[in-house]
Write a structure and sequence with these properties.
With about 140 residues, this protein is mainly α. The protein has five helices and two strands; from the N terminus they run ααααββα. The chain has a two-stranded antiparallel ribbon with strand order 1-2.
Length: about 140
Amino acid sequence: RSGKYGKYMMRASASAQVSVDYKSEEDMVRKLSVLQKISPILMILMENKAEEDSTLPGVTDKKHLLRIQEWDDLDPDRTGFVPHSLSEDGWEELPQNQLLVYKNGELIYEGEKHEFTYVHDEEKMKLMFLEYSGL
């Protein structure tokens, strides 16, 4: 699903990546929490809008952040904030959220092409996290 503005959004927006170093799980959670809390402010500061292109067709009450309006219309499973990322143990759920796909409560996909892809227990999940994070 790409939403009714998906093709326009992919042509009309770009992104930047931020790399953040951390020294512990607690430090990572704290920094991720701060970044997610200030992201709406950063979105407004980085906005570059043209008056004629500042709202979506039929949406007159939102005069700013066209890009965010478009992203909000996309597949919510692949966009927006990761709900558990602000919890103390959110790191455990993050890789699982990316590799394991459930439909109606049943596991239907487990990723591919990685030795830790088939994650069925917390210990393997932690090993995978440590490998990806470089710890």
